[in-house]
From TrEMBL, chain A:
It comes from Litchfieldella anticariensis (strain DSM 16096 / CECT 5854 / CIP 108499 / LMG 22089 / FP35) (Halomonas anticariensis). This is Sarcosine oxidase subunit delta. Residues 92-116 are annotated as: Disordered. One of its GO terms (molecular function) is sarcosine oxidase activity. The lineage of its organism: Bacteria, Pseudomonadati, Pseudomonadota, Gammaproteobacteria, Oceanospirillales. InterPro entries: SoxD, SoxD_sf. Pfam families: SoxD (PF04267). One of its GO terms (biological process) is tetrahydrofolate metabolic process. NCBIfam families: soxD.
Amino acid sequence: MFYIHCPYCGEHREEEEFHPKGQAHIARPEDPAACSDEEWGDYLFFRDNPRGIHHELWVHAVGCRKFFNVTRNTVTYEILETYKMGEQPSITAEYSDGRPAQDAADQASLREGVRA
Amino acid sequence: MPNSVAQNVRTFDTRPEATVAIESPLAYSYQRSKAPKPNSHGRKGLVVRERPLLGHLILRGGAIVLDEALREELGINLPGQPQGLVLDASGERSVQWLSPDEWLIIVPGGEEFELENRLRARLGDAHYSIVNVGGGQTVLELSGEKAREVLMKSVVYDVHPSHFPVGKGVTTVFAKATVIIRRPTEDCWELVVRRSFADYCYRWLLDAGEEYGIGVAK
């Protein structure tokens, strides 16, 4: 059983309350009509299946019913972090110990720019 | 007059004046599954009591606007923290955090339509939603010394007082059903259950509480 931290409820809850929803951070093509069949098929049907760090979308189905992201190691099943929708992971395959401070700051300013 | 959102919402009183008999969701359960009498342990004995036909409203929107409106109309503020539960002085009206933009208001039966109208009038053009869900759910109240023992057998959530103090409420899994568990006072636990699950939860409580001599107060 996982013991998952819901970033919206702000506490750890049993896995029974959650439901996995597949790979996270899949962007819908800007102009679907301009996509080739292959591009559209990749977007709809093809998912990563990495050995190691994987970003997933989960929903707190029995609880606050919000979607959020989970970074999980598919080999050890360890959940490395959970973060809200719209945020970027601090732990990725390149930075398995967490993103360097400068890089994280850049990401933050990037998000700030998007919001403004 | 601007054509505001509030004017376009159709509302209706779910309790019409007509003399139609209203029954609690457990009316049939009491007959079929019986209702054991509370034992004579006084306040310590385990008792389940239904609080039927209360007014339940789901309030959604931005916290700041809703908080202001609630303070004016109900005299209580929105819970500031996740899992928060705030009651008024009498303990009859409560507001509970359900998710970052969603709250559950429970008021005595019959007050909900008037409260909804007053909130709509005050909120005006703000971005919000109020839904009367009173017909869909009911409240079971569990009290007594062994109430926590019964909950420990039934829910996946940690109900130890250090983790579940008075003034907290969570949505979680109770015997495979979804319930909202609240702790309004020290010795009382409230379960907000779906109407369609009320019979199931009632029978589960009778079964789980049998070893503690559970009784039903009506």
